[in-house]
Amino acid sequence: MNIKSDYHIHTWRCKHAVGEMEAYVEKAIQLGLEEIAFTDHIPLPHDFDIEHRMSLHELDDYMQTVTDLDRAYPEISIRKGIEADYYEGFESYTEDLLSRYPFDVILMAVHFIRHWPEENWVFNYDFGNKPPEAVYTDYLQTVLTGIKTGLFNVVAHLDLIKMADLPLVKHNEDDLKMVFNAVKEHDMAIEINTSGKRKTIGELYPAPSVIKMMFQNDVPFTVGSDAHSPVQVGMYFDTVEADLAYPPVRFYKRQMHSSPVFESESGEVRNERNLV
């Protein structure tokens, strides 16, 4: 397998993933991955959606565990990441929380839109008689607003809102181009998330047609399994790599890199492990 990094891995702390963190690491090593990022769900204020994310008091232990695992498994680089929701009105809270921890990579997710019904949950949205392009525009404009905050590094599962047989490329090509331009302007990347292949939608996030547009626009990308169990690490990566136009990027200390990064004990950063 030529994809050597998995940048979207959860832990039991989010309350809907299973398995010890060591098992995720060992699965990645078994697959020959060079680098993974644990990216569990960020706690939100007022215990918003607490049933799907870690609690605030767990963050210190989460970060320390990732650091300890990186030291315990020298054959693989283990990055400190988080999946942070962009939600209108929570910007100050999110900025303050993210600034307190030395994350390597921050995924931006849009799971909720404040003015939508059904508790703002994207998956519960009823299109009804509303044209799909209007719903998609609403969603993508929220994604665009999140990008422009400058708080994040990677847009996770970009077309999470999509419905079967209603592709975003067909209905919202201009909106997608605006997202691509903003991602590049803010030195971000877009995730190719393979978890859709194991869900009802049955395809990648974003869809292959969107990924093709990304490559046409030279948009940097990462690859993530969105693993919620050790067996899901790197899942379906082998079905993706043949269609990649260029390699995925990596992140270290919130900085994008085109190749693996390693740090010596003196703090010097290099791109080859044998130079450290």
Description:
The chain is an alpha/beta fold. It has one domain: Metal-dependent hydrolases (TIM Barrel), CATH 3.20.20. The chain has six helices and eleven strands. The strands form three sheets. It has a seven-stranded parallel sheet. Strands 8-9 form a two-stranded antiparallel ribbon. A two-stranded antiparallel sheet has the order 10-11. α4 runs parallel beside α5 and α5 crosses α6. It is globular. The chain starts with a strand and ends in a 6-residue tail after the last strand.
**Mean pLDDT, rounded to whole units?**
90
Helicity range: 25-40%
Q: Just name the CATH architecture.
A: Alpha-Beta Barrel
Residue windows where pLDDT falls under 50 for at least 5 positions: 272-276
Q: How does the helix and strand content classify structurally?
A: alpha/beta
Domain module count: 1
Output the radius of gyration. 18 Å
- Please outline the major beta sheet: 7 strands, parallel
Oligomeric nature of the chains: single chain
Named CATH topology:
TIM Barrel
- Backbone shape: globular
Q: Which percent range describes the beta-strand content?
A: 15-25%
With helices defined by DSSP (H or I, 4 residues minimum), what is the helix count?
6
First-to-last CA distance: 25 Å
Secondary structure: number of strands: 11
N to C succession of SSEs: EHEHEHEHEHEHEEEEE
CATH superfamily caption: Metal-dependent hydrolases
Can you list the strand order of the major beta sheet?
1-2-3-4-5-6-7
- Reading off the top of the CATH hierarchy, the class is best stated as Alpha Beta
